[in-house]
Amino acid sequence: MTFHCYADDTQVYMVIKPLDNWVNYFSKLELCLSDISSWMSTNMLKLNQDKTELIIFTPKHLKASVPNLQLKVGNNVISSVSYVKNLGVYFDQHLTMERQVSSIVKSGHFHISNIGRIRSFITKTACKTLVNSLVTSRLDYGNILLIGINKTTMNRLQKVQNTAARLITRTRKHEHITPILANLHWLPVHTDHNTKYLRMCTAL
Q1: Which end of the chain, C or N, has fewer beta carbons within 10 A?
Q2: Going by C-beta distance under 8 Å and a sequence separation of 6 or more, which residues neighbour residue 101?
Q3: What is the DSSP letter of 122?
Q4: PANTHER family, from UniProt (predicted)?
Q5: What Rg do the C-alpha atoms of the chain give, in angstroms?
């Protein structure tokens, strides 16, 4: 069993194989959470059971082999959820990252639509500043975690970037996007992901 802490957020995790005794592992996890709760009570702190979540990461083809188990924490019973949010990034149980991409796409289109309403009243520079602040910042955040997602999902992110670029440059849909992105000094989404990954590998 391993744990990871960030500020007041604590995550406890373990690796369980399909043929392992899942009930035994869950019992150990419940005991661990009980010890944490007792320690916090002793030190005048409180474990927020309402915000305690359980997720089981598993490949899609092994989904049927995962037992439907629950955790008991104090008076609460915690069932497994399909996704969790960690430092602003959604992780789904099969690590497809589709929930995270959907969140980025929804937020991106929302802000692009709002900026579009005032586009005729602001300069290109001001528009680019707004887009960088509200749209591309979301495309960039945690994007190294999206390496390896399927092409269809990646294309959804690319469409957001393309729409943002056309908004800034006031170009139409029929115009080829590559020179528009180059003019803004933007890498296509998948290229940006791969570039950051290679930089990380080089730094290790």
Answers
A1: C
A2: 146, 149, 153, 156, 157
A3: S
A4: REVERSE TRANSCRIPTASE DOMAIN-CONTAINING PROTEIN
A5: 22
Which residue shows structure tokens 């959820």?
81
pLDDT band at 201 (very low <50, low <70, confident <90, very high): low
Residue 186 DSSP label: -
- Written as six digits, the tokens of 189 are 């989404």
Q: Convert 28-58 to b/e letters by CB count within 10 Å (16 or more is b).
A: ebeeebeebbeeeeeeeeebeeeebebeeeb
* CB proximity list for 183: less than 8 A, separation 6 or greater: 169
SS3 48: coil
Q: What pTM does this model have?
A: 0.84
Where along the chain do its domains lie? Answer: 2-81, 94-203
